[in-house]
Amino acid sequence: DIQMTQSPSSLSASVGDRVTITCRASQTINKYLNWYQQKSGKAPNLLIYGASTLQSGVSSRFSGSGSETVFTLTISSLQLEDFATYYCQQTFTTPRTFGQGTKVEIK
Amino acid sequence: EVQLVESGGGLVKPGGSLRLSCAASGFTFSISGMNWVRQAPGKGLEWVSSINSAGSHIYYADSVKGRFTVSRDNANDSLYLQMNSLRAEDTAVYYCARDKLHTAVIPFDLWGQGTLVTVSS
Q1: Does the N terminus or the C terminus of chain A have fewer Cβ atoms within 10 A?
Q2: How big is the A-B interface in CB pairs under 8 Å?
Q3: The pLDDT of residue A28
Q4: Would you give the end-to-end CA distance of chain B in angstroms?
Q5: d(C-alpha B70, C-alpha B82), whole Å
Q6: Which residues of B touch A40 (CB under 8 A)?
Q7: Rounded-to-integer distance, Cα A96 and Cα A2, Å
Q8: Cα separation of B21 and B81, whole Å?
Q9: Mean pLDDT throughout A78-103?
Q10: Model confidence at A91, in pLDDT bands (50, 70, 90)?
Q11: pLDDT averaged over chain B?
């Protein structure tokens, strides 16, 4: 199975900060990498798919990059509504594994 | 409204069974691949199972293989998860999620609100 490892597991940031989260795959997954945002008590929400394609309706302050085994999610200017947990997921093969999550908290 | 609504969760004893349902509306369910994802209390997301639009290709996580069965009824826009031989470690919120169409990457672009399954004596 492909293991997905996110770093950091949590971070504290202020409104307006630029935030970067990294996701590493245990083997190459080309660009079959997706990012989700989950707020407390809610279902996950798709932000980015194919490593860098913004899902319709998602703010352009979110961006994704990377390929093969290393990927990043960047929030260009953190807003209050962005405080949440973020998950990467590979859909290159089954099982469609998720990273362990990165919790973004208010500093 | 485009939505997925799960039901069927509850409290069940170890070794027991439960059947979850996911009702789809507002989109053409019969052409969409579907998935089950779970989240144990305070933990991360775990993919459980996938089924293609026709129900002819089905996949399971090793942790549930042989105990859980996914199925779908395209005539009634519904997805199901039959869970047998339940264990305490199956306690989680179970989400159904839709495959995004027209992309080779196939992320999950629509999620239900989740239904809580608690396995405890």
Answers
A1: C
A2: 69
A3: 98
A4: 39
A5: 6
A6: none
A7: 8
A8: 7
A9: 97
A10: very high
A11: 97
